[in-house]
C-alpha cells in the first residue's frame, strides 16, 4: 500500500480562506466533497472510488502508466498537499488526476514510479517510444 485515504479537507489556503469567511459553513461542503472520494494506491494498481450514496469505482493497473506530473500550486504547497496526474494507456482513463493528496506528493510520485517500473518488469511489458516528427 503506497497511499490509502481521502483528499485533504482543506487542500489549499484558498479553501481555508473560504471556510473562515463563511464562518465555517463551507467546511461542511468541503467535508462531504472530500469524503466522496477515496484513493487507494498499491504496488499493482490505483483505485479511485467516488460518490457518497451511489459509488463509482475506477482503477488503473500500474503497468499501464506511461507518464506522471506532480502539481503543487502555491496554495497547496502552503497546506502540504498536491496533485498527481497520471497519463495512462488505459482507454477509459487516459488521464487520471489524484487531487488534493494530503501527503508528500513528490515522495509518493517516487514510490509510485518505482512500483510502476517493477510491475512492468514483472509482467514483461515493454514501452516503445516513437517519434512522429
From the structure above, extract its key features.
elongated, alpha+beta, single chain, 7 strands, four-stranded antiparallel β-sheet, three-stranded antiparallel β-sheet, PH-domain like, 133 residues
Q: What is the average of the pLDDT values?
A: 89
Span between N and C termini? 40 Å
- CATH classification, class level: Mainly Beta
Task: Name the CATH architecture.
Answer: Roll
In spatial order, strands of the major sheet run 1-2-3-4
Overall geometry: elongated
- Evaluate the radius of gyration: 17 Å
- Sketch the major β-sheet: 4 strands, antiparallel
Strand content: 25-35%
Query: Element order, helices and strands?
Result: EHHEEEEHEEH
Spell out the blueprint of helices and strands.
Layout: E1 3-5, H1 13-21, H2 25-35, E2 37-41, E3 45-50, E4 56-61, E5 65-71, H3 74-79, E6 82-88, E7 95-101, H4 105-123
Helix pairs in contact: 1-2
Walk me through what this model shows.
This protein is of the alpha+beta class. The chain has a single domain, classed as PH-domain like, CATH 2.30.29. Helices cover 34% and strands 31% of the residues. A hairpin with a 3-residue loop joins strand 2 and strand 3 (45-50). Helix 1 crosses helix 2 (25-35). The model has no long low-confidence stretch (mean pLDDT 89).
Give a concise summary.
The protein is an alpha+beta fold and 133 residues long.
